[in-house]
Design a protein that fits this description.
The complex is a heterodimer of chains A (53) and B (175).
Chain A: H1 2-6, H2 13-27, H3 33-52
Helix pairs in contact in A: 2-3
Chain B: H1 2-18, H2 27-37, H3 43-55, H4 62-101, H5 106-134, H6 138-153, H7 158-170
The chains are: A mainly alpha (53), B mainly alpha (175).
Chain lengths: 53, 175
């Protein structure tokens, strides 16, 4: 499932970077989910807006 | 007992509101809270409950109910299940109305696209943490790798994969 979600991101480096940062923060640094979402979600939405323009 | 029920309610109502992209996205935090923060079970027990919940018919997040039962018996089942499924059901109904209402607004697209990498990262982290807790032996690692490859490359129903894993387990190879 993770592979299927990540594969379409290979052509969007900024989205792939956010996904990898989120992955690392949760899987290896064990950052609390709420904190990680509060940090990465606005960044990801802002990047998605910037890349669309 | 009461303290555990209060903790279950607090944890699972928070998860209920954070599960963007499906229940699997909250598994790492659920494991962190249940194993590391509260010490209610080991990582291996958590993975076993998750596997049992996946194999059983019913909602994807049956593991919540099993954790409630493990921590506080039947009251735990009730509290954990209501806390996990109640708030998210209410929010989903409200969000669906808002989503339809704002369908022409550009920010809806930005939000939707922005949440995709977040969800992908969380699902990947869930997979790694569950595998790490389960794969103590080479045969278990092999089962994990084969299952991931087969579910990625084929459209095989997950029940067949679960059944194959259970059969290998019955042979005693994973002990």
């Amino acid at each position: 499932m993770a592979g299927k979600l990540l594969w379409p991101l290979r052509k969007k480096p900024e989205a792939l970077a956010v996904a990898l940062l989120m992955f690392g923060a949760i899987a290896f640094l064990r950052v609390p989910l709420l904190l990680a979402m509060l940090v990465f979600t606005p960044v990801s939405v802002a990047l998605s807006r910037k890349m669309r323009r | 007992m009461i303290a555990n029920l209060v903790a279950l309610a607090a944890i699972f109502s928070q998860f209920s509101l954070l599960a963007f992209g499906g229940g699997n996205t909250i598994l790492p935090e659920m494991q962190r809270q249940v194993v590391q923060v509260h010490g209610w079970m080991t990582k291996a027990d958590f993975s076993a409950l998750f596997a049992l919940a996946q194999a059983a018919p019913g909602p994807n997040m049956m593991v919540v109910t099993l954790i409630g039962w493990h921590v506080a018996g039947w009251p735990g089942v009730l509290v954990a299940s209501v806390a996990k499924f109640g708030p998210s059901s209410v929010v989903t109904i409200a969000a669906m109305h808002a989503w339809e209402r704002f369908k022409d607004r550009p920010w809806r697209g930005y939000l939707q696209r922005g949440l995709v990498p977040i969800t992908a990262g969380l699902v990947a982290a869930s997979a790694v943490l569950i595998a790490e807790a389960s794969d103590g032996r080479w045969i278990l690692v092999a089962i994990t790798v084969a299952t991931a490859a087969l579910s990625y490359q084929t459209k095989l129903h997950p029940l067949w994969l679960l059944a194959a894993g259970a059969l290998i387990g019955l042979t005693g190879l994973g002990q």
